[in-house]
Recover the amino acids of this structure.
C-alpha cells in the first residue's frame, strides 16, 4: 500500500495563531484513493528544519504533500529549501501561473509587484499544477531513483485553505496517473443523541463479533454527532462493501433513529433532503444559539429552496415585538422556558409563513444562569403549522451541558437540529 | 530555551475525519510562557507507532504534550503504550478523577460502566491532573535522568477539544513550577482590508529597517484579517516590549485605520467595545451570510448588552414582509443591490429599535450569479438611526470574492463587520 506524509510549514502554526485545516482535507482525499497517511507533521520556517523534515518524509513515504510557506511575504522560505532539496540549478517562470497572477492582481485593482511576480517562479526540474484561485501554484517534484530508491513525489501546495483544497482534485489525479493504487474500503454511519461511552457499551456485543479484518472507529463531534466507521484494506471492492453493509444492517437494528445518515451527512444536509422531499419550508428563532442554527442551515448550498429565514431574538424585546411571544410568558416563566421557546417557534413560523420552525432559548455562559437554570441549560422547540387546518403542533425539550460558551452554543444548535430531524422523519 | 513537541494520536485525524484544533491552543499557551514548540506530529493508534514517536519526541524535547487516544471506546490504546514507555508495573485508580467520572455519569442519567470506570485508572508512577469537564484525566509522566538525561515531562490530555483546553491552565502551571523559563516577547497588531501581498509591499521599507533580532510574521485569516506579529527572544521584558512598541508606532502611522486591534482582538470584540463605550445597540439583517454575522457577534460573551438581534432574510418574502424592503426595490434592482441592502439595514434598525444595523445581500455560490453579479458578489450596508432627530444615515459597499461558498460567506461577514467597525470609529 502506498504511504504518505503530510507536512505543514510555518511558524504561524507552531505558535498557534492558525489552525491547520488543510491536513484533514488532504488526508481524507488520500484515504479515499487508498493511500495510507502514516503521519502529519508541522514544523517551522527554518531552512534546515524544512530540509531535514522533508528528507525524512521522502525517505519513508511514496508521497509527500507539503502545505504552507508559499505566500508572497518575506517570512516564507520554503521554495528555496525545496530547490536545494531537489538539487535545482535555478528557477523558471511558469507562464500558465503567471497569467493567473496577472489576472488576479488586475481584478483586485492593485499593481503587479515583484512579490506577485515571484509567485509564478518555480525551481528548475519541478512541474506546475496551476492554481486558479490564488497566486501560488502547486509545485510537483518527482525524485529520481538515484535520490530515493522508491522514487517518491513531493507536492508543494499554498497554505491558504481554499486554494490548497481547490488544488486537491488535480493532485489526486496526478497521483492516480503515476501510481498503481491498492484498495481501501470504508463506510460511515452517522449517529446523534447517544454519548460515545453509552454507544460503545450498547454496541459492544456487535463490536466483539466483528470479523477480525473489519476495523471500527468512533469519530465524535459536538455538531455532527458520533460517526461510526468500518474499514477493510484490500479484497474485492463489491464484496468488501457488501460485508460492511451487512454489519451496518445489524447496527441499524440496534440503534434505530439514532442513526441519521451516512458518510459526510450532517443534520443540516439531512434536514434539507427531508424538506425538499416534502416540498415544505423552514424558519428559525434563535436566542442562545445567536445565529448558529441559521448559519448551519445556510452552509448547505441550495438551502434557499426550503429555508426562508430566521430571527435572532437576543434581547427579550425582540422575542415580544417581532416573534410575538406574550410579555406574560417571559414575566412568569422567564425567557429560558418551555413556554417561551414554544411561543418563539410558533411565532417565527407565523411571521415567516413557513411549515416548520425550530427555536432555542438558553444560557451559553460563562456568565448568567441560576441554581434552577444553570449555565449550559437550554430549551429547544420545533413547531409545525398545518396550512390546511390552520393548526399548530409544537414539541419541546430541555437540554443541559457543561462546556465552554462556544461548545454549549454548538450543542444547543445541533440538538435543536436533531429534534427537528426526528420530527421531520416521523411526520 | 525549553522546547516542546505536541503529539496527536488517532486514526481519526490521519484519515481526515476530524481537524486537530487542540495543537493550536496548546502551542499558543506554551508560546506565551516562552516554551518553543519545535514541531507537531499526528500519528495513528498503533502501539509501536505511539511508542517510537513519543520516544523520539521525549529524546529531543523538554516537554511533550500528547492529546487523543484516551476516550472510553476500544480504538484507544494510548494509555497502555504510555505505561510501557514509562515502564509502569501496573495501573492505579485515581480517586479524584473517579469522583468526577461518577458525577458526570450520574448527571447524564446513565449507568456507570466498566468503560467509565477505566477512565480514572492510570499507570503506576504517573500523577493525575483531574479533568473537571470530562471522564479522562490529564496524566503526567516525569521521566527520570536514567531514562532521558534532560528529564523531560510528558502530559497526556484527552482529545475532546474543550476538555483539553480546559486542562491547559493546570498544565501550564505545572510546567512553570517545574522548569526555569526563558523569556519570549511578542505583540500582535490586527489589520483588516489590505490583502497580504499589498500589505507586504506597503510596509517593506519598515520591515527592511527592523532590527535583526525582531522577527515579523504575517498571519492572514479571512474572518480576522491579517495579524502582524513581532517577536524577540531573551532580553529584559520591559525593554523588549518597549522596542516592539516603538516599531509598531511607526506601523500605525503607515497603516492608519487598517489597524483595528491588538493581540487576540477580533472585529466582533472591537465592535462590542465601541458599542459599550457609546452605550448604543446593534442589530443585523443577513441574506447571503445566513446568520454568520449574528453568530460572530454573539460568540463574544456579554454581547447581549448591545446586540439586540437579527433577521436572516434568506427568502425575498422575508426582506419585504419583515424588514419592510419595498417590493419595487427588489423588482427593479434585485435583492443583491445597493438599494436593497440599504433598505434591509434601515428596516432592521427600525423593527428592532436599535442605533446601528449591519446588512448583507449577495451570492455565496456555488450556484446562482449572473455576468453582472457573479458568484462572490455582495452588497454590504451599515445604518445609523438617530433617535433624537429621527434621521437615518446609511452607507454601503460592494465586494467581490472568488472563493468557496464557505469562505465567501466568511468574507462577506467580516467585511460587513469591518464596515461597521470603521463607521463606529468615525461616529
Amino acid at each position: 500500500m502506498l504511504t504518505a506524509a503530510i507536512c505543514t510549514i510555518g511558524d504561524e502554526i507552531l505558535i498557534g495563531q492558525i489552525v491547520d485545516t488543510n491536513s484533514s482535507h488532504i488526508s481524507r482525499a488520500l484515504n479515499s484513493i487508498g493511500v495510507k497517511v502514516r503521519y502529519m507533521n508541522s514544523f517551522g520556517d527554518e531552512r534546515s528544519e524544512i530540509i531535514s523534515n522533508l528528507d525524512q518524509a521522502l525517505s519513508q513515504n511514496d508521497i509527500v504533500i507539503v502545505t504552507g510557506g508559499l505566500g508572497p511575504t518575506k517570512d516564507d522560505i520554503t521554495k528555496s529549501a525545496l530547490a536545494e532539496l531537489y538539487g535545482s540549478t535555478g528557477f523558471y517562470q511558469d507562464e500558465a501561473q503567471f497569467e493567473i497572477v496577472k489576472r488576479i492582481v488586475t481584478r483586485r485593482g492593485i499593481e503587479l509587484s515583484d512579490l506577485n511576480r515571484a509567485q509564478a517562479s518555480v525551481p528548475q526540474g519541478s512541474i506546475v499544477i496551476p492554481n486558479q484561485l490564488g497566486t501560488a501554484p502547486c509545485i510537483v517534484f518527482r525524485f529520481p531513483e538515484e535520490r530515493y530508491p522508491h522514487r517518491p513525489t513531493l507536492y508543494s501546495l499554498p497554505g491558504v485553505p481554499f486554494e490548497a483544497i481547490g488544488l486537491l482534485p488535480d493532485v489526486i489525479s496526478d497521483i492516480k496517473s503515476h501510481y498503481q493504487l491498492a484498495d481501501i474500503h470504508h463506510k460511515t454511519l452517522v449517529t446523534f443523541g447517544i454519548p460515545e461511552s453509552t454507544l460503545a457499551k450498547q454496541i459492544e456485543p456487535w463490536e466483539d463479533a466483528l470479523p477480525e479484518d473489519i476495523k471500527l472507529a468512533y469519530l465524535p463531534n459536538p455538531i455532527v454527532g458520533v460517526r461510526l466507521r468500518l474499514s477493510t484494506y484490500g479484497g474485492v471492492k463489491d464484496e468488501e462493501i457488501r460485508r460492511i453493509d451487512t454489519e451496518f444492517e445489524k447496527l441499524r437494528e440496534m440503534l434505530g433513529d439514532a442513526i441519521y445518515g451516512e458518510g459526510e451527512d450532517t443534520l443540516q444536509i439531512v434536514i434539507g433532503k427531508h424538506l425538499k422531499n416534502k416540498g415544505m419550508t423552514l424558519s428559525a428563532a434563535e436566542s442562545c444559539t445567536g445565529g448558529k442554527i441559521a448559519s448551519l442551515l445556510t452552509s448547505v448550498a441550495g438551502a434557499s429552496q426550503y429555508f426562508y429565514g430566521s430571527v435572532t431574538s437576543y434581547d427579550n424585546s425582540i422575542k415580544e415585538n417581532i416573534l410575538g411571544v406574550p410579555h406574560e410568558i417571559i414575566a412568569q416563566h422567564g425567557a429560558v422556558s418551555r413556554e417561551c421557546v414554544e411561543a418563539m417557534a410558533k411565532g417565527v413560523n407565523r411571521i415567516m409563513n413557513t411549515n416548520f420552525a425550530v427555536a432555542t432559548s438558553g444560557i451559553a455562559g460563562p456568565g448568567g444562569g441560576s441554581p434552577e437554570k444553570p449555565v449550559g441549560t437550554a430549551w429547544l422547540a420545533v413547531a409545525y403549522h398545518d396550512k390546511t387546518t390552520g393548526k399548530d403542533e409544537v414539541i419541546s425539550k430541555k437540554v443541559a451541558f457543561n462546556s465552554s460558551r462556544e461548545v454549549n452554543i454548538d450543542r444547543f444548535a445541533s440538538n435543536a437540529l436533531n429534534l427537528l430531524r426526528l420530527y421531520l422523519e416521523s411526520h
Q: What stands out?
A: The radius of gyration of chain A is 26 Å. The CA atoms of residues 296 and 324 of chain A lie 25 Å apart. The mean pLDDT of chain A is 92. Chain A has three domains: 3-178, 184-262, 267-425.
